[in-house]
Amino acid sequence: MFRPAARATIAAVCLVAAWSVLSTAARPQVPDMLPSWHDGPSKRAIVAFVGRVTRAGGPDFVPVPERIAVFDNDGTLWSEQPIYVQVAFAFDRVKTLAPQHPDWRDRQPFKGVIEGDMKAVAATGEKGLLEIIAVTHAGSTTEEFATIVTGWIASARHPSSNRPYTDMVYQPMLELLACLRANGFKTFIVSGGGVEFMRPWAERVYGVPPEQVVGSRAKVRYEVRNGVPVLARLAETDLVDDKAGKPVGIHQAIGRRPIAAFGNSDGDFEMLEWTTSAPGPRFGLIVHHTDAARESAYDRGAHVGQLARGLDEAPARGWVVVDMKQEWKVIHPFERR
Amino acid sequence: MFRPAARATIAAVCLVAAWSVLSTAARPQVPDMLPSWHDGPSKRAIVAFVGRVTRAGGPDFVPVPERIAVFDNDGTLWSEQPIYVQVAFAFDRVKTLAPQHPDWRDRQPFKGVIEGDMKAVAATGEKGLLEIIAVTHAGSTTEEFATIVTGWIASARHPSSNRPYTDMVYQPMLELLACLRANGFKTFIVSGGGVEFMRPWAERVYGVPPEQVVGSRAKVRYEVRNGVPVLARLAETDLVDDKAGKPVGIHQAIGRRPIAAFGNSDGDFEMLEWTTSAPGPRFGLIVHHTDAARESAYDRGAHVGQLARGLDEAPARGWVVVDMKQEWKVIHPFERR
User: How many helices (H) and strands (E) does chain B have?
Assistant: First the structure.
């Protein structure tokens, strides 16, 4: 790590290159940990925040154990359009399980899923979707379910890119995760998605271990079956880790208030609010999907990932809003290859 | 860290001194991370296990991220006699809150607590105790509750030693926690006690940060009160992290199966069973309270911390049973001073 002798107060922050614009000499040896971010207001705000909380002896220094950062997943770390990845998983599970459920051929929303008639599925509304989630997510043990997810995520393809869903992550956010960890942050995922759907691959894809993944969850029950202990997944919700459920999930799993939160939709509003409403240095960031050409453009009217209140209140709350189109040089890692 | 050149397979384990008994030369520079353990079967089993899982290239090597160790708290990391510390806390809260509840003066179990009549309290049974826990643990925000716990734990005294409860921890177990962490383990507390009762002091006392403390918990609700977000503690149980609830708590909070579990009572049975029932190297340990002179002697008939099934099944399951009287040189840290 580069340490300019004349500016000892500059800590090891994500963008030491941003510092170099203040300097006269080019410093090619300086690593920029956020190379996919344009030198715009969001990158500057990130770098300034990380600099403040890591500057030993500074007024905003935060000890390493308190450097907790929480990230939403869908729409913040990977694409959530055209549908949530977990919904695509559930639809594929319906097709896989259909032979065991002949009645599904004549029953919505299953009929629609099997026939690819998304209008018929949509017509069943949230109730239909919850029914699909229930039948595709329950009935297995936790270890069986992890195996199912692992197999699916390795083979399924995103409908528009025809790439694995784990390719549809955001390169700038991967850099941000790594940058924060390099600066002593512990990074957590706090998602409305299912915790057991994310844990099998989050460590490989995001570098976030299972014990730092928080999400919605089903109830599980400990059972000993023929001498073998299992955790059986039940068709009953234990936590909806969305909206006001996110601070609850954070409290249950982390037990201290984060100092930085990253989201993209109004489902993240309370998480951002909870994170940024305490004394000391705080950071809130919203990824605004503004890039119809390279990804998607949506906010207020979106059926997935609606963002209205967050946009309205971000300025007064001091939250950073990332203009994806203007501020991200690349969206997905494969664009760089 | 000492690395004997001639025995490169010996990893940095807790008791390199145990290794030295195999050697002919005395090696005073070798650190023993478990100095309060006699060189008995339990210490040898711990050292052997840590050696196996940390030996790079060995058949039982476990990568660092998978080195998850879970510890019960009451009776495993600190004394649970004559009553659970959290019950002592609840009794003190009743006394503190009594002026606001004049009806308690004539109503059991509160009357008994206020007057120090433990027989009257005991006569109300589990129902009475739950009523005491409910009224003393609900009604505050999570941050208010943490402040109450922090104040109490700093001032309250254990009835027999007249020392702070946090002095009543077990020195050999503190050493074990540190030893495991020095060998790449992530150490978690998984306790039937309340998670919000432990988190305010577990980092200072055990070196276990809040996000690695799992326990029983009340439901909380996110609210914005006059513009200030809070998490309100409700009088409703969300998880009883005891017995079959321990694997559930482990799954919710950690999301992968531990490879080592440490307990002392039948409340830990399922946690030990879950931990040790998977392939690969596994370690289960039960602290057996056998020392009436220095601490307490109890097992099958105990009203707190009953241990029967664990004793019966430990040999067949390969669990280590620590004979506290024979194997621990000291019980509490203050004995060394």
Answer: 13, 8
Q: Which of A224, A231, A233 to mutate to test the interface with B (most CBs of B within 10 A)?
A: A231
C-alpha dist (Å) from residue A138 to A193, A217, A229, B287: 15, 11, 18, 37
Distances in whole angstroms, Cα of residue B101 to Cα of each of B96, B110, B125: 10, 10, 21
Taking chain A (337 residues) in consecutive chunks of 10 residues, what is each chunk's mean pLDDT?
Answer: 35 53 44 93 97 97 98 98 95 96 95 95 91 90 97 96 97 98 98 97 98 97 97 94 98 98 98 97 98 97 95 98 98 88
Predicted ipTM beyond 0.95: no
Would you call A274 an interface residue with chain B, using a CB distance cutoff of 8 Å? yes
Report how far residue B198's alpha carbon sits from residue B202's, in angstroms, rounded to the nearest whole number.
6
Nearest CA in chain B to A256: B210
Helical H segments across chain A, by residue range: 16-20, 41-54, 85-97, 110-115, 118-123, 125-137, 142-155, 171-182, 195-206, 245-253, 269-276, 309-317, 324-327
What is the value of pTM for the model shown?
Answer: 0.92
Interchain proximity A228–B277, CB inside 8 Å = yes
Which of B331, B286, B10 has the alpha carbon at shortest distance from B172? B331
d(CA A2, CA B134): 55
The residue among A191, A196, A214, A222 with the most chain B CBs within 10 A of its CB, best to mutate, is A222
| Partner residues linked to A263 by β-bridges | A286
Which neighbouring-strand residues pair with A70? A188, A261
Q: What is the pLDDT of residues B269-317, one digit of tens each?
A: 999 999 999 999 999 999 999 999 999 999 999 989 999 999 999 999 9
User: Does A229 contact B at CB distance below 8 Å?
Assistant: yes
Contacts of B213 in chain A (CB under 8 A): 255
Is residue A73 within 8 Å of residue A193, measured between CB atoms? yes
CA distance B267 to B246: 8
Q: What is the DSSP string of A252-274?
A: HHT-S--SEEEESSGGGHHHHHH
Per-residue model confidence as pLDDT tens digits over B170-201: 999 999 999 999 999 999 999 999 999 999 99
A186 and B211 in contact by Cβ < 8 A?
Answer: yes
Q: How far is A149 from chain B (nearest CA, A)?
A: 14
